[in-house]
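REQUEST FORM: STRUCTURE PREDICTION
Request ID: SP-0412
Submitted by: Lab K.M.
Chain count: 1
Length (residues): 101
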Amino acid sequence: MANLRRVGFDTVTPEAIELVEKVTSYLNTSLDDAAITAFVDEMSCQHRTLQQNFTRMCAVWLEHLGTNVANQYDLRNEASVMLGREFIEKIPSEKRHLPTV
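STATUS: Completed
RESULT:
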């Protein structure tokens, strides 16, 4: 899948690109409640450290969305950006950053 732009993202690696492409492919073809539940059920069977790391990645994603400036989103992802902003506003910084255990 083609990305919109990677300008300014010096940390992007081939592994990250591959993972994002797999996840977005899954989301693009299977975005219904059953598919989401299946993913959550499978993730809940993974090692506890992997669950923690996945949650940590999701928290960083929400934080990233919450810092999105007004002109970088539209109706397709507005609810995600608003959730990210609420995440930042309501959860103190020290609680948003989960450790790797």
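NOTES: Residues 34 and 40 are 10 Å apart (CA to CA).
Reviewed by: T.R.
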